[in-house]
């Protein structure tokens, strides 16, 4: 059987009759949720019925990727030219093909890897949709004197926000683009939206719990020196409701929209900017971005604040910030979160004038820059580090046995060693190591004393399957 579109009803009937189905392709619903992985051998009709309930009427069966259909006796099922089921001659009782030709890992690690892979696939679908959306909006702004379809952007961001809420920061599992800056503006908007939305949610939860704990232990008296910002109801902290966070996500998505008004040669200049050029760059926020919002009759104070002040100071007398018409205490907390996300993503992305920085180095530098500045910033910074992770997925670590390892997941972290102890690339795939597991070999702990390598340097040491992953972003 070649690659064939098969009706879901046909597939259900095969399984109900005792047969088995493996699609060889991942099956998603309209929202990008993974319903069925390509390697799963379906033996119960309910799996296929759920796919049908999601509005899917036909599914591709990819024979070239180990997909296929088999009857209750193990005979391969072929389709005639009219797509009706037609048993194919295959030796009766022949064994079914293996569920997967991929490397399988058992136990909790295996389950976590499967979950990560599922999240990556869903995130990739959502990322491409968001990228198409911001591309279209930017194209419209250029062609229509600053006007764009804000309703289309709102719809996309609503879907994106729902996905981010359910998954935390799922795009952290996607491999970062470290070799090209062609789509930087598009990718940067999505990354900042994802990071900042995750941080807002974590900050919301963490700070609320802190206040509740303090109130329960101190009879409701809040010390002014700790929660001074509470006196300012507009810009001090209060619990952010889901609709407000959706509005913030829209602002995070559009925060850099004013850069559309700056000539690309200037945005991508490799040399040092002149004072006049830097002045034009600065105007992308408080002038150009604000003008675009006005032209589209966008009156949301949240969006206006994010667009105009995402380069404003996070603490008193922070240097190099703009505009300077507001004190740092007057900048809303969600704007400060946007700035942290912007800084981190800019540091870990390739630009025309610099290489991408290792994520671990970026997290460390952001933390050291803003730690111990003021109490509210401490809460924001805590939420930021927790959301990104000290060892973000895709970053590289040294182990104490001198191996280098690729971080698959921040929790643990879960790492995949890819060199031997002498620094040479392994010729065979190693097993992932959960560094959080009790009783783990102490020589497999992270060696924080070793200097971090840049992604570009590490790329030359990666085995082929990780190289392909790095280039697929």
Task: Briefly say what this structure is.
The chain folds into three domains: 4-87, no CATH class; 110-388, Hypothetical protein af1432 (Orthogonal Bundle); 396-471, no CATH class. 44% of the residues lie in helices and 8% in strands. It has helices spanning 8-16, 45-53, 107-143, 150-167, 184-218, 242-254, 264-267, 275-295, 301-309, 333-347, 359-370, 375-388, 455-459, 464-471; strands at 4-7, 20-22, 27-28, 34-36, 58-61, 68-70, 77-79, 85-87, 396-398, 404-409, 414-417, 433-434.
Q: What is the strand and helix layout of this fold?
A:
Layout: E1 4-7, H1 8-16, E2 20-22, E3 27-28, E4 34-36, H2 45-53, E5 58-61, E6 68-70, E7 77-79, E8 85-87, H3 107-143, H4 150-167, H5 184-218, H6 242-254, H7 264-267, H8 275-295, H9 301-309, H10 333-347, H11 359-370, H12 375-388, E9 396-398, E10 404-409, E11 414-417, E12 433-434, H13 455-459, H14 464-471
Antiparallel strand pairs: 1-5, 2-6, 3-4, 7-8, 9-10, 10-11, 11-12
Can you describe this structure?
With 473 residues, the protein is α+β, with helices and mostly antiparallel strands. It folds into 3 domains: 4-87, no CATH class; 110-388, Hypothetical protein af1432; 396-471, no CATH class. Helix content is 44%, strand content 8%. The strands form 5 sheets. Strands 9-10-11-12 form a 4-stranded antiparallel beta sheet. Strands 1-5 form a two-stranded antiparallel ribbon. Helix 10 (333-347) packs antiparallel against helix 11. Residues 80-106 and 222-235 have low confidence and may be disordered.
């Amino acid at each position: 059987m070649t690659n064939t579109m098969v009706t879901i009803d046909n597939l259900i009937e095969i399984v109900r009759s005792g047969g088995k189905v493996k699609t060889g392709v991942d099956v998603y619903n309209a929202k990008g949720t993974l319903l069925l992985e390509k390697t799963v051998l379906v033996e119960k009709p309910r799996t296929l019925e759920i796919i049908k309930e999601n509005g899917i009427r036909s599914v591709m069966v990819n024979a070239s990727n180990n997909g296929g259909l088999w009857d209750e006796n193990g005979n391969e099922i072929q389709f005639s030219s009219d797509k009706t089921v037609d048993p194919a001659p295959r030796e009766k009782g022949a064994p079914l093909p293996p569920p997967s030709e991929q490397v399988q890992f058992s136990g909790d690690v295996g389950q976590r890897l499967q979950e990560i892979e599922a999240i990556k696939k869903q995130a990739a679908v959502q990322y491409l949709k968001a990228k198409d959306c911001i591309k279209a909006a930017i194209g419209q702004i250029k062609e229509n004197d600053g006007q764009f379809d804000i309703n289309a952007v709102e719809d996309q961001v609503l879907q994106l926000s729902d996905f981010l809420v359910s998954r935390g920061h799922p795009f952290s599992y996607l491999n970062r683009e470290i070799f090209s800056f062609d789509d930087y503006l598009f990718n940067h908007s999505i990354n900042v939206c994802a990071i900042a939305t995750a941080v807002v949610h974590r900050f919301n939860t963490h700070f609320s719990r802190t206040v509740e704990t303090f109130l329960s232990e101190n009879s409701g008296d809040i010390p002014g020196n700790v929660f001074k910002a509470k006196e300012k109801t507009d810009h001090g902290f209060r619990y952010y409701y889901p609709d407000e966070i959706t509005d913030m996500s829209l602002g995070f998505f559009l925060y850099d929209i004013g850069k559309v008004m700056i000539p690309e040669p200037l945005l991508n200049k490799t040399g040092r900017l002149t004072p006049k050029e830097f002045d034009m760059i600065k105007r992308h926020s408080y002038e150009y971005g604000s003008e675009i919002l006005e032209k589209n009759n966008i009156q949301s104070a949240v969006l206006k604040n994010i667009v105009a002040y995402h380069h404003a100071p996070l603490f008193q007398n922070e240097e190099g910030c703009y505009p300077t018409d507001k004190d740092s205490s007057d900048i809303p907390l969600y704007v400060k979160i946007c700035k942290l996300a912007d800084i981190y993503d800019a540091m870990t992305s390739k630009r025309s004038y610099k290489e991408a920085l290792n994520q671990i180095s970026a997290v460390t530098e952001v933390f050291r820059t803003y730690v111990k500045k003021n109490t509210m910033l401490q809460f924001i910074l805590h939420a930021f580090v927790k959301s990104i992770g000290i060892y973000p997925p895709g970053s590289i670590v040294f182990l104490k046995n001198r191996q280098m390892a690729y971080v698959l997941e921040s929790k643990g972290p879960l790492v995949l060693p890819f060199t031997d102890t002498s620094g040479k690339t392994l010729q065979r795939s190693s097993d992932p190591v959960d560094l959080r597991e009790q009783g783990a070999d102490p020589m497999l702990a992270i060696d924080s004393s070793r200097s971090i390598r840049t992604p570009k340097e590490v790329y030359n040491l990666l085995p082929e399957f990780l190289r392909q992953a790095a280039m697929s972003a």
